[in-house]
């Protein structure tokens, strides 16, 4: 939450950033936290002896082109995905932080709504609410596609294995992906959902919005400070009704401009501030 006395500035949207025909997909998908790691490494801020945090083994899955295909495990480094590597190098020279209009696809409006959940597989992200909502949509014979991304840790909530079986016909992607493949899924998805009980900032949600996704977030935690009221829900029933409406009219999402200015989190906007802060040293 904001500190007492802090006044969040009102976001201004220039006329050229708003349009009615089709949402935009960015040519550059890096926000400031991607380049910050490179800056920290270049300034030597990380100790050579600092231990890495053990997160347990990562399991990476193939991207599935159709829901009916099976999801086979692909070990990291198998070459199934574009290598994440230093992905800033590919985009740095052309970095503009602009959001060009993507090409029109005549059949795009007929495709099922693509819902993405890009969060850690842990209880504080409340996957039970997310999957129970999707199972309810399935029971109502509402069509949709699903990508469940994010990292797994030592203990995975049991709802994931249940959802993997019950929602199998809808699944496009399931599990941790390389950085390149992860961003490609965000660029292809329509709606990003958070059901979190605990969130300090919501990096995954902002990344997805920057890639063109329509957000649905709890009206709680940090979300009301970042997202306008139209993207917030207060109850599980509101979340269900919002998703049901968007599943039945995916064109609403695909023609919508999300009223969140992600450029304020771009490396172009914040680089000078970070460089000054890190160059100042300790008092």
From TrEMBL:
In alphabetical order, the GO MF annotations are: glycosyltransferase activity
Keywords of this entry: Glycosyltransferase, Transferase
Fetch the Gene3D superfamilies from UniProt.
Glycogen Phosphorylase B (3.40.50.2000)
One of this protein's Pfam families, by short name?
Glycos_transf_1
Q: Glycosyl transferase family domain location, by residue?
A: 102-228
Residue spans with biased composition (Basic and acidic residues)? 87-108
* Amino-acid biosynthesis as UniProt keyword: no
* InterPro entries in the cross-refs: Glyco_trans_1 (IPR001296), GT-like_domain_containing_1 (IPR051862)
UniProt region (Disordered), positions on chain:
66-110
**What PANTHER family has UniProt attached to this entry?**
GLYCOSYLTRANSFERASE-LIKE 1, GLYCOSYLTRANSFERASE-LIKE DOMAIN-CONTAINING PROTEIN 1
The name of this protein is Glycosyl transferase family 1 domain-containing protein
Q: Which organism is it from?
A: Gasterosteus aculeatus aculeatus
């Amino acid at each position: 939450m904001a500190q007492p006395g802090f006044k969040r500035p009102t976001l201004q949207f220039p006329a050229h950033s708003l349009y009615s025909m089709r949402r935009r997909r960015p040519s550059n998908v890096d926000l400031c936290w991607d380049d910050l790691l490179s800056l920290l490494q270049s300034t030597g801020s990380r100790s050579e002896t600092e231990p890495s945090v053990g997160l347990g083994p990562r399991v990476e899955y193939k991207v599935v082109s159709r829901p009916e295909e099976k999801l086979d495990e692909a070990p990291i480094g198998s070459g199934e995905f574009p290598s994440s590597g230093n992905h800033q190098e590919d985009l740095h020279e052309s970095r503009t932080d602009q959001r060009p209009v993507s090409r029109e696809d005549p059949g795009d409006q007929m495709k099922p709504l693509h819902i993405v959940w890009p969060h850690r597989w842990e209880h504080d992200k409340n996957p039970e609410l997310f999957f129970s909502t999707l199972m309810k949509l399935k029971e109502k014979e509402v069509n949709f596609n699903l990508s469940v991304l994010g990292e797994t840790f030592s203990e995975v909530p049991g709802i994931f294995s249940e959802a993997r079986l019950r929602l199998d016909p809808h699944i496009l992607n399931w599990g941790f992906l390389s950085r390149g493949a992860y961003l490609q899924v965000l660029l292809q998805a329509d709606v990003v959902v958070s059901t979190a009980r605990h969130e300090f900032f919501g990096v995954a949600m902002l990344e997805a919005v920057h890639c063109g996704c329509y957000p649905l977030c709890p009206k709680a935690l940090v979300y009301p400070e970042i997202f306008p009221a139209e993207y917030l829900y207060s109850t599980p029933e509101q979340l269900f009704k919002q998703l049901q409406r968007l599943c039945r009219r995916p064109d609403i999402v695909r023609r919508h401009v999300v009223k969140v200015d992600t450029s304020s989190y771009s490396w172009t906007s914040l680089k000078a501030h970070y460089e000054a802060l890190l160059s100042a040293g300790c008092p």
